[in-house]
Each structure stands twice: as C-alpha cells, then as structure tokens.
Amino acid sequence: MRFFPSIPCQIQLLALFLDNFIGYLQLWIALCIGTNSSAWLGTAALVTNMRNFPLSRGTVAGLIKGYVAVSAAVYTETFNGMLGNSATNLLLLLALGIPTACIVVMYFVRPCTPSLEEDNSTEHSHFMYTQISSVVLGIYLMVATILGDTLKLSQAVTYLLFGIMILLLLAPLAIPIKMTLYPNKQTKEKPSTLAPSYSTDSLSGADPENSEPLLGSASATLATRAHESDDSTDLDVLLAEGEGAVNLKKKRGPRRGDDFTFLEALVKADFWLLFIVYFCGVGTGVTVLNNLAQVGMSVGANDTTILLCLFGFCNFVGRILGGSLSEYFVRSRMLPRPFWMMCTQIIMVVTFLLFATGLHSLIYVSTTLLGICYGVQFAVMIPTVSELFGLKDFGLMYNFMLLVNPLGAFFFSALLAGYIYDKEAARQHPGVLEPSNCYGPDCFRVTFYVCAIVCCCGTLLSVLFIARIKPVYQMLYASGSFRHPRSQQQLH
C-alpha cells in the first residue's frame, strides 16, 4: 500500500518550496544588480580617467584599482564605527547612501581636455600627492582594523578612528580646491607630437585670429600643387590599382598600438596571450583569496581577520606599485609592462610552494607576497590593453579581461580547491555526513602545487608575449613619452 501525503502536508511542502525559491530568487536578483552596478561604476571611472590622462595610464590604473582594493576595509570601519555592527543599517547604507553619493559626484566624472605636456610638473606632483595620501590611507586602515579586532575599543575611540578615515578619504579633494583657489597661469602651448586625437586643435579649437589667413594660404598651396601634379597622381593611382595595392590597403586592419574595435582585437594573438597570462596570475591568486580563511585555519591560524587584512593591504600596495613602476620603466627604458607580470608570476610560484609546506610560520610571509603580486597583475593589465589596442573600445576589452576572475574562481577554487578540501575533511572525520573543517597541510597542498604549475606556464607565455610586443613599446615610447603610431608615420 502506497503512502500519499495529506493535502495539508502537500500545501506546507509547496509553501516551503516557494518560500525558499523566492528567497533565493531575491538573493540572486540583489547579487546581479550589485555586481553589475559595481562593474558600471568601475568602468566609468577607469575609462574616463584613462582618456583624461593618456600620458599617465599606469599611474591612473594603479590609483583607481588601489582604492577599490581598500574599499572593503573602509566599509568594515564604517560598519564598526557608525553603524553599530548592524547588518540592517549596512544594507540601508548600500541601498540609499551609495546611490546618493553617485548622483552627487557623477557630474565631475566626465571627459576633460588632457594635458599634452610631456614634462608637466604640476600633474606629476598631483599624482604623487594622491599616491602618498592613498598609501597613508591604506596603512591607517590596516592598523585600525587590527586594533579593532585585537582590542576592545570604546565608542569614542571608534568614532575618532572613523573620523580620521573620512579625512584621509577626502584628502585628494585638496587638489581641485587648490587649483580653484590658485589657478595656474596660461602658458603658450608647445607643438605636440601626439596622435591627431590628442592634438590641441581638436581639443581646444583653432586660433580665431589666425585661422582665416592660414586656411587661405593652405588652400592656395594645395590648389597649385594639385594642378601641377594632377596627371602624375592619376597615373600613380592607376598603377597602384593594377598591382592590387589599393585593394590591399583597404583590407588592412589596424596595427598594434592603433585603435581596435573589440571584434578586431578578438582575432589577434596578442589579445589572447594577454588574457591567458592574466588568467594564470589572477585566476590562481583569486583561489587563495576566496579560501584564505580556510587556508589560515588549516595551518593553525585561529584569527584569520589579520590574515585577510594583510592580504588586502598588500593587494592595495601591489596595485599602486605596479602602476608606478611600470609607468617609470616604460618611459625610461621602453620596458613592456607585461615584464612585471612575468616577474610577479615567478614570485607567485615560490609563494605557492611556501603555502604548500603548511607551516604556520610562513603563512604571513606567503600572504604578503601573494597580495603584492596579485595587485600588480591588475595594475599592469589595464594600461597594457589600452596601449596595444587603443582606447576606442577599451571599456569592453577591459571588462572582457575581468572574466578571468570568475573563470579562475570556478576552475581553481570551486572545482579544484573545494573538491580536495571536502575530500580531505571527510577523510579526517569519518562517519560525519558533512564535515565543515579540515586541518593540516594536505587540505590545500595539491591545490597549491597545481597553482604553481599554472604560474610556471604563465611565466613562459609571458616571455613569448614580451618578445612579441617589445617592438611596439619601442615605437610607442621612443621619445620617453607615449606617442601614437600614426604620429610616428607622420614624423617620418
């Protein structure tokens, strides 16, 4: 005799299913909106500033991504200092406060006329001030987070720490305030050797007093030359068409350093080499980031907050450092930026082997090295994309590169690390249906070995990639400053 549940029982099961389904659906929608809005905000700020400061791409990328790296610590201090450790207040801040702040400041995130002076001391000093203030902010957040975790601070001290953090966050506003109160005197512009898209005429307009005579003189000269060489020009065109040169020129796509469309970049080997190299570094790094608490617990680190704070600060330092170092050496030595990706991946190989030992004494050193290397990968990839494939579809290409994060998390974190961790936990706790914790070096040893091998492959591919794009960087930075390839053709 079969057992059929009663009607009330079926209704209860259906209600329970619908309740869980609606809860998961709400969570999915919230995560979808949150992550997509974050991508929109980051892309708007990054693309706008890369176009506003085309001569300082590495520095801009390092600063913007550096502030993203410390944002988690900022919200942690806000949660502890002003929100009273209330999850409801935090959700209200994210739902109402963040959109309000975006609406207030969105007017200032807009394209501006970029500086065309190669040796602009004012711009360099402003970038230096912003970098120093951001480093001070990062150090302060790390110290404040550790103090808040290890000591029982009074409410007054917590408010004081929060107030200091706000002042450090607002420190870069001193630059526009200073420029407003003490504007620089207009200096006579020097002739620019940049691309036509960055020329002074296209950005600021021609001189109204001299435009007509110059136009008339140029038109007369062109008319005279056209009249004298009309027959020879027609003959050259006919010969070129006969040889197929004109058709070949029409089919020729952009060269590395020109402005590519996204579809044009997708068929280039350099685009996929950069994607794979970036995947080898960031894809393995995000695996440790997602499992850092479990990694710390497996080697005996009871308080993983300090470990996470250390990784976040070193990630921030790596982004600032990667942007600044790559910017300096690409100008002084024409050194391709992916060289630093290669160096950091070599260090990451050693770091993963240190993680694999499972020694408690090495966990903080390993976390420090990995955080710096992980940050450098971000700061180097962004300007590399803009230099090789231009700024025309830069936002789309940059976000395509960010697919590395979920792909690395899926393959190395979910499939590899999660499977090995659960299997070792089940071996350590026989008879338990769902063991939660795993202890010992065997929990992640195989995962770290695989990550080290992947970074070795990434290092070898980096060597090939650097060899391919080295002539491009020699052409772009031959004069010590970024120069568009088309302007090189015009000069020669």
Automatic annotation (TrEMBL):
Database matches in PANTHER family: OS04G0502800 PROTEIN (PTHR21576:SF154), UNCHARACTERIZED NODULIN-LIKE PROTEIN (PTHR21576)
Region described as Disordered: 187-214
Topological relation to the membrane, as annotated: Multi-pass membrane protein
Spans through the membrane: 25-47, 59-76, 88-109, 129-147, 159-181, 271-293, 305-326, 338-356, 362-384, 396-421, 446-467
Organism whose genome encodes this protein: Panicum virgatum (Blackwell switchgrass)
Biased composition (Polar residues): 194-203
Gene3D superfamilies in UniProt: MFS general substrate transporter like domains
Protein name as annotated: Nodulin-like domain-containing protein
SUPFAM superfamilies found in the cross-reference section: MFS general substrate transporter
Main location: membrane
Pfam families xref list: NFD4_C, Nodulin-like
Gene Ontology CC: membrane
Key words of the record: Membrane, Transmembrane, Transmembrane helix
Subcellular localization, as worded in the UniProt entry: Membrane
Location of the NFD4 C-terminal domain: 266-472
Limits of the Nodulin-like domain: 22-177
